[in-house]
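Self-study notes.
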Amino acid sequence: MVTKPPPQSALRAKRRAIAQTTMAALFAALTAAGAFVSIPLPFSPVPVTLQNLFALLSGLILGPLLGGAAVGLFLIAGALGAPVFAGAAGGFAHFFGPTGGFLLGYLLAALTAGFIAGRPRVNRRTSPLRIILAVLAGFLVVYVPGIIRLKMVLDTDWGNALILGFVPFLIGDILKGIAAVLIAPRLRRAAAEQMDG
């Protein structure tokens, strides 16, 4: 009995699914790797890392669903104890510590940036303004749950929470944002070719 080969559409769908899974896993790994560039601040329990950049890029490059899935995978790995959080730490307890809100913020950053920029598509250019808005909004939403949680854990006022969890990171995030705006268009095209091809 001769077995018919699967139709081309089925092969394309399978290749697309493999490419999407690979991309999500890659950005989850990049977000985890961002923990190893961790600079502790003597006056704040929140360190400087590259994780917010990679979380934002997950949504910016892959779109909201895949980008959110990438950051979700990273968060699940950390919750299960993998050393993927800042300072090569892991464990579910980190979600209840002073940096727990920022971890949730990473997921919000991927979703927000992804929704604003949209899913990347072959032969469809995203306007620079839309990319800039996605980057600005993506970085800002990291701080909403981050500062709320920091205020609760430290039992401090809003002004002090902002000084500890927002002000020291502004210059670094501006530089990260510029980098994201510059590299996003090319990476979005490359991702679209891989996932839609």
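Second protein, same conventions, sequence then structure:
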Amino acid sequence: MKRQIVFVLSTNYAGSHFLALQVSSHSRCLSLGEFHRYRRSPDRLSRRACDICPSDAECPVFSGVYGASDHALFDRVFQNVGSYSPDVATVVDNSKKPDWAQRFLGLGDYDLRFLHLVRDPRALVRRWALTCKERGEVLKTRLRTARRLLPHAFDILSGPEDNVYAHKWVMQNREITTFLNRHQLSHRLVAYRELVQFPDRVVGDIMGWLGHQYEPSQLGYWNFTHHGSQKARYMKPPEGGKFHDQRWRTDLDVAVQERVAHHPQVNAYLAQIGMRLQDDGLVLHADWAEKAALV
């Protein structure tokens, strides 16, 4: 099997670690976390690429990676992995940003695959509003978004704060869609809601597409060792059996939820990618929930 790199592309706070950990818990896969972190100085322990090893130099996956050129980067990783876990054929990088993934499009020796994970825009409106307020970046975000979306600048500058984040959600996801389509890349669209509610179906479909036999143990990813960056909340079994973050349903005013749900740019983009909003999140496969209800 040709060596394979899977890039998870998404906005921030979309659940990219959650998706990457499930895929990489397969016996022939390995997670790299947010691999772009390798560029940071190995002397800064708080910013190292691997969160579980004393240093990147001592990590069986990241040793010797710092300073490697883009085209030698994954060669070094697979060289390390060959000694650490020789059955691994696929590595998963959830750096999220298309400009990072674009660096590696010329790697002809690898089978490159892409997962576009999409989270409900209402969840991102809630999260970005909190983050920008905590960092004192509300005005900065409004101005930066307006500059990047000049045709909508007046609407962004004069509208309510949630309108800014709705535009930002569309902009970032549309950049991913444009990147995938422009380069005609092999990819799968993943809805966060379905990943949580139907993990066996979502992960099973992904593994088949990657050429691997789905292993049900993947869903218990916390039982495996994962090098690279991590999110602490994902590294233990979820309470109630599922990580389904729907705090936006209680934290956002109903008026804000309605504005986002009826936002013209949001709905135009969802129509473009074949998704729709419903009360509890984004839907890609409407028939899944209907069939589950009949069982």
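Instructor comment on the second fold: DSSP finds 13 helices and seven strands in the chain.
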